[in-house]
User: What shape does this take?
Amino acid sequence: MIELAGGKGANLGELVSFDIRVPPGFVITSKAYSYFISYNNLELKIKSILEEKDSATASEEIKKLIISSRVPPDLENAILSSYDELAKKVGKEILVAVRSSATAEDIENASFAGQQDTYLNVSRSELIQKVKEVWASLFNERAIEYRKTKGIDSTKVEMAVVVQKMVNSRSAGVMFTLHPATGDSRYIVIESSWGLGEAVVGGKVTPDEIVIEKSTLRIVEKRVSHKILKYVYNPQKKANEEVDLSNSPEADKISISDEEAIELAKLALKIEEHYKRPMDIEWAIDADLKFPDNVFIVQARPETFWSSKKATKEEKEVTSVENRKVLVKGLAASPGIASGIARVILDVKEAGNFKKGDILVTRMTDPDWVPIMKIASAIVTDEGGITSHAAIVSRELGIPAIVGTKEATKVIKDGQEITVDATRGIVYEGRIVEEVEEQKPQVAQGISGISRDTLMSLYPITATKIYMNLGQPDVIDKYVDLPFDGIGLMRIEFIVSEWIKYHPLYLIKIGKPEEFVNKLADGVARVATAIYPRPVVVRFSDFKTNEYRRLIGGEEFEPEERNPMLGWRGVSRYVSPQYEPAFRLEVRAIRKVREEMGLKNVWVMFPFVRTEWELKKALKIMEEEGLQRSKDFKVWIMAEVPSVIVLADVFAKIIDGFSIGSNDLAQLTLGVDRDSEILGRMGYYDERDPAVLRSMKKLIRIAHKYGATVSICGQAPSVYPEVAEFLVRAGIDSISVNPDAVISTRRNVASIEQKIMLEKLRK
Assistant: This one.
């Protein structure tokens, strides 16, 4: 329910569902945010500001706009009633934490930690104002910049808000279910400090560190740091305050007991087992409760660095290290080696002269530093641990980083040449690695410096083509060197919803149809250029009516259907008098890519084809716009409606290829709603069902009889190896899978083909 509760809210709800100890609370959903925006007519104003102003100015103006607007009275009453219900459960008026929960945060591919605001110790009288401030923080400058780097449209991100009872934190911190510096999954690493967790997450202190072996729950390493401060809530001031610990016994006393650390590790294992992947977890220990009821999980999100990148050995050679002077040592937070000019900067406002390739040396880094971090060749900080926000972001950006050196800003001189060895956690004087010329983008598995031809030769050759599915043009550079033979399914829905944002008929109405054509063409061209001359099969839009309604201006043109999955979608839309003008825009975009940009490797595919007559009508519209089947322009259709299988001989005469949509084909062949939890549990929805497999085999046989090719872009072959074997034996021409399954599918198909050849030889 990320779209409704945001990443944080959805994750907390999921934690509660499998008995993880979480502070009680409620979620103000993203729909409440949208209602607030709509009630105050802010959407177009925000869009205009984002388009016309730089990030800093836009942030300031949009935040003022949101904070000065009124929360609808019925929504305000609902929020306060929920607070009263929570207070009643606890038995007294309570203070709460008001936390951002953006609908794109804390998801697998992007960690948004710290991009939006959190307010602690909020009373009932302050609650509505703080909710507005959290909504406004969706447009913090650093949040706008961060989303730009991830290709996320700021106007499409909604904001849910989590309201939770405050934990009276004696100690707090973060933990990873792998070692964040090395990626070693045998360990849990816990970082802890006194007071509220913001000191650790924000990199304000060098925390205590406990490393626990997963298999035995044994503490294998313990490090007590000198903690210079803590944050606590001052009830008199009704505010959080920073307490200096420099002369306090707490400064050098470990902030977490062994039994508390092991209890946290148990919870971490339970969380990792549930999510089936490494996790980044925030926790707190309540001073008012007894063990183990005092140990709370505050937040859990997927770990994003090691999960998307394999650790690789550093290829740059370090020479004569033994003869070099060690300047400082710290924690290796993000591996790698870099040499360059050190820039000692204590305030982000002083970073104006920072140049690309310089090494950032500062007390600590927080989200405000992201624009500088993006151009730095390495980062060195005095404070912070390996799970601080700065460490997380440096790993995500692929920047070598050493944190917690204590004295880097004092020892390293501004303008000094240094080498940062973030594999060992050492900063050396001088340049001890050669300058490396900028390389091509790395492949998804983290291999660099290897040509594509060499890389491809490492993988088996298959007679069955291995294609890749793709939705976001922005990520093609990440996957361009994977061993795939082309894009078997390029969905354009992401380009429409995130780049164009407007309903095409609305753009026609306001006289801006070329905006749709140009942006769609740009997105397709980005992918086609990157993989040229490999083919890109672009599927025309397959939004359902409920999805089209969410585009700007969409409600005016879209009906409300009871069952959009079986409604006005695919080719039925293109040939309808209402939508035909919009379909022509899609065709013009493809023509522009092929003819104006010269990218002849772009083909097209029609989704959700039902009848011969509608397909012929759609092909005629395409021809009227100047696109016609030819030797270098192939036209495919999706085979997901059973009528396509039944009339395969008819369709094969008018198109070049089929692509099996196994998800819809199974749903429609078996008469099963694939989203039905009851039928799913009972085993009714199964792409391996004999009726589905027989349909696929029949399609391959008939298509080949008439000279048409057959591919599959559904997930069945990557999920079920036996389906892949069935299809290869049936003679399928290509298999298109998601990027993460390209290598495994190629190897699986190669082994199947070898097995078939051996069987024939033995006969």
Observations:
- The chain is about 35% helix and 20% strand.
- Residues 105-114, 310-322, 434-451 have pLDDT under 50 and may be disordered.
